[in-house]
Protein backbone atom coordinates (compact mmCIF):
# COMPACT_ATOMS: atom_id res chain seq x y z
CA UNK A 1 0.00 0.00 0.00
CA UNK A 2 1.17 3.57 -0.63
CA UNK A 3 2.07 5.62 2.45
CA UNK A 4 -0.93 6.37 4.59
CA UNK A 5 -1.85 10.05 4.52
CA UNK A 6 -2.10 10.17 8.29
CA UNK A 7 0.80 7.90 9.27
CA UNK A 8 2.83 9.05 12.34
CA UNK A 9 6.62 8.70 12.29
CA UNK A 10 7.94 5.84 14.40
CA UNK A 11 4.57 4.06 14.70
CA UNK A 12 4.80 0.68 13.03
CA UNK A 13 1.83 -0.48 10.99
CA UNK A 14 0.38 -3.83 12.08
CA UNK A 15 -0.66 -5.85 9.06
CA UNK A 16 -3.62 -7.59 10.69
CA UNK A 17 -4.99 -4.35 12.09
CA UNK A 18 -4.47 -2.59 8.78
CA UNK A 19 -6.28 -5.38 6.97
CA UNK A 20 -9.19 -5.02 9.38
CA UNK A 21 -9.24 -1.24 8.96
CA UNK A 22 -9.10 -1.53 5.21
CA UNK A 23 -11.68 -4.29 4.76
CA UNK A 24 -13.08 -3.94 1.26
CA UNK A 25 -13.33 -0.17 1.55
CA UNK A 26 -11.07 0.74 -1.33
CA UNK A 27 -12.85 -1.72 -3.62
CA UNK A 28 -16.20 -0.23 -2.66
CA UNK A 29 -14.85 3.21 -3.52
CA UNK A 30 -14.70 2.08 -7.16
CA UNK A 31 -18.45 2.51 -7.23
CA UNK A 32 -18.32 6.30 -6.86
CA UNK A 33 -14.71 6.96 -7.86
CA UNK A 34 -15.77 9.01 -10.90
CA UNK A 35 -17.99 11.15 -8.70
CA UNK A 36 -15.10 11.66 -6.28
CA UNK A 37 -12.97 12.81 -9.22
CA UNK A 38 -15.66 15.26 -10.36
CA UNK A 39 -15.99 16.66 -6.84
CA UNK A 40 -12.18 17.01 -6.72
CA UNK A 41 -12.34 19.06 -9.90
CA UNK A 42 -14.98 21.38 -8.44
CA UNK A 43 -12.99 21.70 -5.21
CA UNK A 44 -9.82 22.60 -7.14
CA UNK A 45 -11.74 25.24 -9.12
CA UNK A 46 -13.03 26.65 -5.84
CA UNK A 47 -9.49 26.77 -4.40
CA UNK A 48 -8.25 28.65 -7.45
CA UNK A 49 -11.11 31.15 -7.12
CA UNK A 50 -9.97 32.05 -3.60
CA UNK A 51 -6.29 32.22 -4.51
CA UNK A 52 -5.21 28.92 -3.00
CA UNK A 53 -4.10 27.57 -6.39
CA UNK A 54 -2.67 29.37 -9.39
CA UNK A 55 -4.47 29.25 -12.72
CA UNK A 56 -1.68 27.08 -14.05
CA UNK A 57 -1.95 24.63 -11.17
CA UNK A 58 -5.69 24.36 -11.78
CA UNK A 59 -5.14 23.63 -15.47
CA UNK A 60 -2.75 20.81 -14.54
CA UNK A 61 -5.10 19.40 -11.90
CA UNK A 62 -8.10 19.44 -14.22
CA UNK A 63 -6.11 17.78 -16.98
CA UNK A 64 -4.87 15.04 -14.66
CA UNK A 65 -8.32 14.49 -13.16
CA UNK A 66 -9.71 14.03 -16.67
CA UNK A 67 -6.93 11.57 -17.50
CA UNK A 68 -7.48 9.69 -14.28
CA UNK A 69 -11.19 9.35 -15.03
CA UNK A 70 -10.41 8.09 -18.54
CA UNK A 71 -7.80 5.65 -17.25
CA UNK A 72 -10.22 4.36 -14.64
CA UNK A 73 -12.93 3.84 -17.23
CA UNK A 74 -10.58 2.07 -19.63
CA UNK A 75 -9.00 -0.07 -16.94
CA UNK A 76 -5.56 1.53 -17.37
CA UNK A 77 -5.85 2.73 -13.77
CA UNK A 78 -7.07 0.14 -11.26
CA UNK A 79 -8.29 1.27 -7.86
CA UNK A 80 -7.10 -1.49 -5.55
CA UNK A 81 -5.39 -2.30 -2.27
CA UNK A 82 -2.33 -0.28 -3.21
CA UNK A 83 -4.38 2.62 -1.83
CA UNK A 84 -6.09 3.09 1.50
CA UNK A 85 -9.19 4.39 -0.25
CA UNK A 86 -10.36 6.13 -3.39
CA UNK A 87 -9.91 9.56 -1.87
CA UNK A 88 -6.21 9.05 -1.15
CA UNK A 89 -5.75 7.38 -4.54
CA UNK A 90 -6.82 10.60 -6.28
CA UNK A 91 -4.40 12.69 -4.24
CA UNK A 92 -1.57 10.16 -4.74
CA UNK A 93 -2.05 10.20 -8.50
CA UNK A 94 -2.20 14.00 -8.71
CA UNK A 95 0.93 14.29 -6.56
CA UNK A 96 2.76 11.70 -8.64
CA UNK A 97 1.93 13.55 -11.85
CA UNK A 98 2.05 17.18 -10.68
CA UNK A 99 4.10 17.40 -7.49
CA UNK A 100 3.11 20.41 -5.36
CA UNK A 101 -0.19 21.09 -7.13
CA UNK A 102 -1.26 17.58 -6.12
CA UNK A 103 -0.10 18.19 -2.57
CA UNK A 104 -2.18 21.39 -2.43
CA UNK A 105 -5.59 19.96 -3.41
CA UNK A 106 -6.58 18.74 0.03
CA UNK A 107 -6.52 22.27 1.52
CA UNK A 108 -9.99 22.93 2.92
CA UNK A 109 -11.42 19.46 2.52
CA UNK A 110 -11.53 16.19 4.42
CA UNK A 111 -12.23 12.67 3.31
CA UNK A 112 -15.34 13.12 5.44
CA UNK A 113 -16.87 15.64 3.06
CA UNK A 114 -15.33 13.84 0.06
CA UNK A 115 -17.24 10.67 0.83
CA UNK A 116 -20.42 12.66 1.49
CA UNK A 117 -20.31 14.52 -1.78
CA UNK A 118 -19.45 11.41 -3.81
CA UNK A 119 -22.29 9.48 -2.19
CA UNK A 120 -24.84 12.21 -2.84
CA UNK A 121 -23.82 12.56 -6.48
CA UNK A 122 -24.02 8.78 -6.88
CA UNK A 123 -27.40 8.57 -5.19
CA UNK A 124 -28.90 11.29 -7.33
CA UNK A 125 -28.17 9.13 -10.37
CA UNK A 126 -29.51 5.96 -8.77
CA UNK A 127 -32.71 7.63 -7.61
CA UNK A 128 -33.21 9.09 -11.07
CA UNK A 129 -32.91 5.54 -12.40
CA UNK A 130 -35.45 4.23 -9.87
CA UNK A 131 -37.77 7.05 -10.85
CA UNK A 132 -37.36 6.37 -14.58
CA UNK A 133 -37.94 2.63 -14.18
CA UNK A 134 -41.04 3.18 -12.06
CA UNK A 135 -42.40 5.59 -14.64
CA UNK A 136 -41.71 3.09 -17.40
CA UNK A 137 -43.49 0.32 -15.47
CA UNK A 138 -46.45 2.62 -14.79
CA UNK A 139 -46.66 3.57 -18.48
CA UNK A 140 -46.71 -0.06 -19.60
CA UNK A 141 -49.29 -0.96 -16.96
CA UNK A 142 -51.50 1.94 -18.10
CA UNK A 143 -51.32 0.91 -21.74
CA UNK A 144 -52.18 -2.66 -20.91
CA UNK A 145 -54.97 -1.54 -18.55
CA UNK A 146 -56.53 0.32 -21.44
CA UNK A 147 -56.14 -2.56 -23.88
CA UNK A 148 -57.39 -5.18 -21.43
CA UNK A 149 -60.09 -3.30 -19.56
CA UNK A 150 -62.75 -5.71 -20.84
CA UNK A 151 -60.80 -8.92 -20.19
CA UNK A 152 -62.57 -10.63 -17.29
CA UNK A 153 -60.41 -11.85 -14.44
CA UNK A 154 -61.42 -13.13 -11.02
CA UNK A 155 -60.95 -10.68 -8.15
CA UNK A 156 -59.69 -12.31 -4.95
CA UNK A 157 -59.71 -11.41 -1.30
CA UNK A 158 -58.02 -13.81 1.15
CA UNK A 159 -57.01 -15.71 -2.00
CA UNK A 160 -60.68 -16.73 -2.25
CA UNK A 161 -62.73 -15.96 -5.34
CA UNK A 162 -64.65 -12.78 -4.56
CA UNK A 163 -66.01 -10.75 -7.47
CA UNK A 164 -65.71 -10.38 -11.20
CA UNK A 165 -62.83 -8.10 -12.06
CA UNK A 166 -60.71 -7.44 -15.11
CA UNK A 167 -57.12 -7.62 -16.23
CA UNK A 168 -57.48 -3.86 -16.75
CA UNK A 169 -58.20 -3.36 -13.08
CA UNK A 170 -55.20 -5.49 -12.16
CA UNK A 171 -52.96 -3.41 -14.41
CA UNK A 172 -54.37 -0.10 -13.24
CA UNK A 173 -53.57 -1.05 -9.65
CA UNK A 174 -49.92 -1.58 -10.47
CA UNK A 175 -49.86 1.55 -12.60
CA UNK A 176 -50.94 3.72 -9.70
CA UNK A 177 -48.54 1.94 -7.35
CA UNK A 178 -45.59 2.66 -9.60
CA UNK A 179 -46.66 6.27 -10.15
CA UNK A 180 -46.50 6.64 -6.36
CA UNK A 181 -43.09 4.97 -6.34
CA UNK A 182 -41.79 7.24 -9.10
CA UNK A 183 -43.00 10.28 -7.23
CA UNK A 184 -41.38 9.11 -4.03
CA UNK A 185 -38.05 8.46 -5.75
CA UNK A 186 -38.22 11.94 -7.30
CA UNK A 187 -39.01 13.61 -3.99
CA UNK A 188 -36.21 11.74 -2.27
CA UNK A 189 -33.82 12.71 -5.03
CA UNK A 190 -34.74 16.36 -4.51
CA UNK A 191 -34.04 15.94 -0.80
CA UNK A 192 -30.64 14.35 -1.42
CA UNK A 193 -29.76 17.10 -3.91
CA UNK A 194 -27.69 19.25 -1.51
CA UNK A 195 -23.95 19.92 -1.59
CA UNK A 196 -21.91 18.91 1.47
CA UNK A 197 -18.53 19.73 -0.12
CA UNK A 198 -16.77 22.43 1.90
CA UNK A 199 -17.99 21.20 5.28
CA UNK A 200 -14.62 19.43 5.71
CA UNK A 201 -14.45 17.07 8.67
CA UNK A 202 -17.79 18.33 10.02
CA UNK A 203 -16.77 21.70 11.44
CA UNK A 204 -16.04 23.73 8.33
CA UNK A 205 -12.61 25.19 7.71
CA UNK A 206 -11.04 28.60 8.18
CA UNK A 207 -10.92 29.39 4.48
CA UNK A 208 -13.50 31.42 2.53
CA UNK A 209 -14.33 28.40 0.33
CA UNK A 210 -16.45 29.20 -2.69
CA UNK A 211 -19.21 26.79 -1.85
CA UNK A 212 -21.67 28.47 -4.21
CA UNK A 213 -19.29 27.64 -7.06
CA UNK A 214 -18.92 23.96 -6.14
CA UNK A 215 -22.69 23.68 -5.68
CA UNK A 216 -23.32 25.00 -9.16
CA UNK A 217 -20.39 23.17 -10.79
CA UNK A 218 -21.56 19.82 -9.44
CA UNK A 219 -25.17 20.48 -10.40
CA UNK A 220 -26.59 20.45 -6.89
CA UNK A 221 -29.90 22.22 -6.32
CA UNK A 222 -28.80 23.72 -3.03
CA UNK A 223 -26.07 23.96 -0.44
CA UNK A 224 -25.97 21.80 2.62
CA UNK A 225 -25.47 24.59 5.09
CA UNK A 226 -24.44 23.25 8.49
CA UNK A 227 -21.12 21.38 8.51
CA UNK A 228 -22.15 19.37 11.52
CA UNK A 229 -25.46 18.41 9.98
CA UNK A 230 -23.64 17.40 6.80
CA UNK A 231 -22.03 14.69 8.93
CA UNK A 232 -25.16 13.98 10.94
CA UNK A 233 -27.08 13.41 7.74
CA UNK A 234 -24.71 10.65 6.65
CA UNK A 235 -26.62 7.42 6.77
CA UNK A 236 -29.88 9.33 7.09
CA UNK A 237 -30.08 10.26 3.44
CA UNK A 238 -28.93 6.76 2.46
CA UNK A 239 -31.79 5.39 4.57
CA UNK A 240 -34.27 7.68 2.85
CA UNK A 241 -32.97 6.60 -0.54
CA UNK A 242 -33.25 2.91 0.35
CA UNK A 243 -36.77 3.52 1.64
CA UNK A 244 -37.72 5.10 -1.68
CA UNK A 245 -36.25 2.08 -3.46
CA UNK A 246 -37.96 -0.21 -0.99
CA UNK A 247 -41.32 1.30 -1.77
CA UNK A 248 -40.89 0.10 -5.35
CA UNK A 249 -39.51 -3.23 -4.12
CA UNK A 250 -42.57 -3.81 -1.94
CA UNK A 251 -44.80 -3.53 -4.97
CA UNK A 252 -42.41 -5.57 -7.06
CA UNK A 253 -42.52 -8.30 -4.42
CA UNK A 254 -46.33 -8.46 -4.48
CA UNK A 255 -46.54 -8.25 -8.23
CA UNK A 256 -44.01 -11.09 -8.52
CA UNK A 257 -46.11 -13.05 -6.03
CA UNK A 258 -49.21 -12.60 -8.21
CA UNK A 259 -47.30 -13.76 -11.26
CA UNK A 260 -45.84 -16.81 -9.57
CA UNK A 261 -49.34 -17.82 -8.45
CA UNK A 262 -50.97 -17.00 -11.77
CA UNK A 263 -48.40 -18.99 -13.70
CA UNK A 264 -48.96 -22.15 -11.64
CA UNK A 265 -51.07 -24.90 -13.23
CA UNK A 266 -53.66 -24.35 -10.48
CA UNK A 267 -54.36 -20.84 -11.76
CA UNK A 268 -52.97 -20.96 -15.29
CA UNK A 269 -53.84 -17.31 -15.95
CA UNK A 270 -50.49 -16.20 -17.22
CA UNK A 271 -47.75 -17.44 -19.44
CA UNK A 272 -44.40 -15.90 -18.61
CA UNK A 273 -42.10 -15.19 -21.54
CA UNK A 274 -39.76 -18.17 -21.93
CA UNK A 275 -36.61 -16.19 -21.03
CA UNK A 276 -38.05 -15.55 -17.58
CA UNK A 277 -38.33 -19.23 -16.76
CA UNK A 278 -35.79 -21.96 -16.10
CA UNK A 279 -35.80 -25.74 -16.05
CA UNK A 280 -35.00 -28.32 -13.42
CA UNK A 281 -31.84 -30.42 -13.28
CA UNK A 282 -33.84 -33.53 -12.47
CA UNK A 283 -37.46 -32.96 -13.53
CA UNK A 284 -37.52 -32.66 -17.32
CA UNK A 285 -41.10 -31.39 -17.29
CA UNK A 286 -40.46 -28.28 -15.20
CA UNK A 287 -40.75 -24.67 -16.27
CA UNK A 288 -39.95 -22.66 -13.19
CA UNK A 289 -40.60 -18.96 -12.62
CA UNK A 290 -37.14 -18.37 -11.10
CA UNK A 291 -36.85 -14.81 -12.34
CA UNK A 292 -40.00 -13.59 -10.63
CA UNK A 293 -38.99 -15.51 -7.52
CA UNK A 294 -35.62 -13.76 -7.39
CA UNK A 295 -37.36 -10.43 -8.03
CA UNK A 296 -39.58 -11.17 -5.05
CA UNK A 297 -36.62 -12.25 -2.90
CA UNK A 298 -34.63 -9.13 -3.71
CA UNK A 299 -36.82 -7.23 -1.30
CA UNK A 300 -34.84 -8.93 1.47
CA UNK A 301 -31.52 -7.52 0.24
CA UNK A 302 -32.84 -3.97 0.06
CA UNK A 303 -34.55 -4.25 3.44
CA UNK A 304 -31.36 -5.70 4.96
CA UNK A 305 -29.31 -2.78 3.63
CA UNK A 306 -31.77 -0.36 5.17
CA UNK A 307 -31.66 -2.18 8.50
CA UNK A 308 -27.86 -2.33 8.54
CA UNK A 309 -27.62 1.42 8.04
CA UNK A 310 -30.26 2.15 10.65
CA UNK A 311 -28.30 0.14 13.23
CA UNK A 312 -25.08 1.96 12.36
CA UNK A 313 -26.60 5.33 13.16
CA UNK A 314 -26.71 4.75 16.90
CA UNK A 315 -23.83 7.23 17.34
CA UNK A 316 -23.04 10.54 19.00
CA UNK A 317 -22.62 13.62 16.78
CA UNK A 318 -19.66 14.13 14.45
CA UNK A 319 -17.87 11.69 12.19
CA UNK A 320 -17.17 8.14 13.32
CA UNK A 321 -15.55 5.41 11.28
CA UNK A 322 -18.61 3.21 11.85
CA UNK A 323 -20.23 5.34 9.15
CA UNK A 324 -17.99 3.80 6.52
CA UNK A 325 -20.00 0.58 6.82
CA UNK A 326 -23.06 2.36 5.40
CA UNK A 327 -21.36 2.40 2.02
CA UNK A 328 -21.30 -1.36 1.40
CA UNK A 329 -24.92 -1.68 2.49
CA UNK A 330 -26.00 1.15 0.23
CA UNK A 331 -24.19 -0.16 -2.84
CA UNK A 332 -25.39 -3.70 -2.23
CA UNK A 333 -29.00 -2.65 -1.71
CA UNK A 334 -29.14 -0.42 -4.79
CA UNK A 335 -27.19 -2.89 -6.91
CA UNK A 336 -29.60 -5.73 -6.19
CA UNK A 337 -32.76 -3.61 -6.15
CA UNK A 338 -32.10 -1.84 -9.44
CA UNK A 339 -31.09 -5.08 -11.16
CA UNK A 340 -34.46 -6.60 -10.23
CA UNK A 341 -36.46 -3.51 -11.09
CA UNK A 342 -34.74 -3.18 -14.46
CA UNK A 343 -36.16 -6.54 -15.57
CA UNK A 344 -39.73 -5.57 -14.79
CA UNK A 345 -40.68 -3.41 -17.81
CA UNK A 346 -39.96 -6.10 -20.41
CA UNK A 347 -41.52 -8.80 -18.29
CA UNK A 348 -44.76 -6.80 -18.06
CA UNK A 349 -44.70 -5.86 -21.72
CA UNK A 350 -44.40 -9.49 -22.77
CA UNK A 351 -46.57 -11.51 -20.45
CA UNK A 352 -49.56 -13.27 -21.98
CA UNK A 353 -52.88 -13.93 -20.32
CA UNK A 354 -54.86 -17.09 -20.84
CA UNK A 355 -58.29 -15.49 -21.23
CA UNK A 356 -60.06 -18.85 -21.26
CA UNK A 357 -58.56 -19.91 -17.94
CA UNK A 358 -59.42 -16.60 -16.33
CA UNK A 359 -63.00 -16.73 -17.52
CA UNK A 360 -63.31 -20.35 -16.38
CA UNK A 361 -62.19 -19.31 -12.92
CA UNK A 362 -65.11 -16.94 -12.60
CA UNK A 363 -67.82 -19.00 -10.92
CA UNK A 364 -71.45 -17.92 -10.49
CA UNK A 365 -71.03 -17.08 -6.79
CA UNK A 366 -68.90 -14.14 -7.90
CA UNK A 367 -71.98 -12.27 -9.17
CA UNK A 368 -73.54 -12.23 -5.72
CA UNK A 369 -72.21 -8.82 -4.78
CA UNK A 370 -73.24 -7.29 -8.09
CA UNK A 371 -76.72 -8.79 -7.78
CA UNK A 372 -77.09 -7.32 -4.30
CA UNK A 373 -76.03 -3.92 -5.59
CA UNK A 374 -78.45 -4.19 -8.56
CA UNK A 375 -81.32 -4.99 -6.18
CA UNK A 376 -80.35 -2.06 -3.98
CA UNK A 377 -80.35 0.15 -7.04
CA UNK A 378 -83.93 -1.03 -7.70
CA UNK A 379 -84.87 0.16 -4.21
CA UNK A 380 -84.44 -2.95 -2.05
CA UNK A 381 -82.66 -1.97 1.21
CA UNK A 382 -79.12 -3.25 0.87
CA UNK A 383 -79.27 -5.57 3.90
CA UNK A 384 -82.33 -7.32 2.38
CA UNK A 385 -80.73 -7.35 -1.07
CA UNK A 386 -77.64 -8.92 0.48
CA UNK A 387 -79.74 -11.77 1.90
CA UNK A 388 -81.60 -12.34 -1.36
CA UNK A 389 -78.37 -12.33 -3.34
CA UNK A 390 -76.87 -14.94 -1.00
CA UNK A 391 -79.25 -17.50 -2.56
CA UNK A 392 -77.26 -19.65 -5.03
CA UNK A 393 -80.38 -20.03 -7.15
CA UNK A 394 -80.11 -16.36 -8.11
CA UNK A 395 -76.47 -16.52 -9.17
CA UNK A 396 -77.38 -18.07 -12.48
CA UNK A 397 -78.81 -14.67 -13.43
CA UNK A 398 -75.27 -13.33 -13.52
CA UNK A 399 -73.37 -12.62 -16.68
CA UNK A 400 -69.65 -12.00 -16.36
CA UNK A 401 -69.42 -9.48 -19.14
CA UNK A 402 -72.44 -7.52 -17.86
CA UNK A 403 -71.12 -7.68 -14.33
CA UNK A 404 -67.77 -6.47 -15.46
CA UNK A 405 -69.15 -3.69 -17.65
CA UNK A 406 -71.29 -2.43 -14.80
CA UNK A 407 -68.36 -2.47 -12.44
CA UNK A 408 -66.00 -0.55 -14.68
CA UNK A 409 -68.60 1.79 -16.17
CA UNK A 410 -67.97 5.53 -15.77
CA UNK A 411 -68.80 6.65 -12.27
CA UNK A 412 -68.80 3.14 -10.80
CA UNK A 413 -66.29 2.41 -8.07
CA UNK A 414 -64.40 0.17 -10.42
CA UNK A 415 -64.13 2.80 -13.15
CA UNK A 416 -60.49 2.55 -14.13
CA UNK A 417 -60.17 6.34 -14.56
CA UNK A 418 -57.10 5.82 -16.68
CA UNK A 419 -57.08 9.47 -17.74
CA UNK A 420 -56.55 10.57 -14.16
CA UNK A 421 -53.67 8.11 -13.84
CA UNK A 422 -52.17 9.29 -17.12
CA UNK A 423 -52.27 12.85 -15.90
CA UNK A 424 -50.50 11.92 -12.67
CA UNK A 425 -47.89 10.00 -14.61
CA UNK A 426 -47.18 12.95 -16.87
CA UNK A 427 -47.02 15.29 -13.85
CA UNK A 428 -44.55 12.88 -12.21
CA UNK A 429 -42.52 12.94 -15.42
CA UNK A 430 -42.34 16.70 -15.76
CA UNK A 431 -41.34 17.36 -12.12
CA UNK A 432 -37.79 16.53 -11.00
N1 LIG B 1 -13.77 5.56 3.92
C1 LIG B 1 -14.16 6.56 4.86
C2 LIG B 1 -15.69 6.53 5.04
O1 LIG B 1 -16.36 6.00 4.19
C3 LIG B 1 -13.77 7.90 4.37
C4 LIG B 1 -13.66 8.91 5.45
C5 LIG B 1 -12.47 8.62 6.31
N2 LIG B 1 -12.38 9.58 7.34
C6 LIG B 1 -11.66 9.39 8.46
N3 LIG B 1 -11.66 10.33 9.30
N4 LIG B 1 -11.02 8.28 8.69
O2 LIG B 1 -16.18 7.01 6.02
UniProtKB/TrEMBL annotation:
It comes from the Bacteria. It is an enzyme of class 4 (lyase). Its EC number is 4.3.2.1. It holds the Pfam family Lyase_1. It is found in: Cytoplasm. The keyword Cytoplasm applies. Signal peptide: none annotated. Keywords: Amino-acid biosynthesis, Arginine biosynthesis, Cytoplasm, Lyase. Residues 34-302 form the Fumarate lyase N-terminal domain. PROSITE patterns: FUMARATE_LYASES. InterPro entries: Argininosuccinate_lyase (IPR009049), Fumarase/histidase_N (IPR024083), Fumarate_lyase_CS (IPR020557), Fumarate_lyase_fam (IPR000362), Fumarate_lyase_N (IPR022761), L-Aspartase-like (IPR008948). Its main location: cytoplasm. Pathway: Amino-acid biosynthesis; L-arginine biosynthesis; L-arginine from L-ornithine and carbamoyl phosphate: step 3/3. One of its GO terms (molecular function) is argininosuccinate lyase activity. It catalyses: 2-(N(omega)-L-arginino)succinate = fumarate + L-arginine. The keyword Lyase applies. Belongs to the lyase 1 family. Argininosuccinate lyase subfamily. In the N-terminal section; belongs to the lyase 1 family. Argininosuccinate lyase subfamily. This is Argininosuccinate lyase. It comes from Noviluteimonas lactosilytica. The lineage of its organism: Bacteria, Pseudomonadati, Pseudomonadota, Gammaproteobacteria, Lysobacterales. The gene is argH.
Amino acid sequence: MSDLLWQKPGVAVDAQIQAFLAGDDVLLDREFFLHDIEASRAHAQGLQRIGMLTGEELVGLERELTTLAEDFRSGAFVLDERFEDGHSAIEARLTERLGDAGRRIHAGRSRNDQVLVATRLWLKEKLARVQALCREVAGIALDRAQAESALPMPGYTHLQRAVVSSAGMWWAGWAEAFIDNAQRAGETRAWVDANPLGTAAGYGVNLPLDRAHTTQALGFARLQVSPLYAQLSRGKFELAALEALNSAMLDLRRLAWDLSLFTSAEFGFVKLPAQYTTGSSIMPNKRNPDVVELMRGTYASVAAARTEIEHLLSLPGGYHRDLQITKGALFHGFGKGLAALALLPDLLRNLDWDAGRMRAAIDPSMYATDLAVDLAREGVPFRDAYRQAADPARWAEGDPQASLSARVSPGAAGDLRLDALRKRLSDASSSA
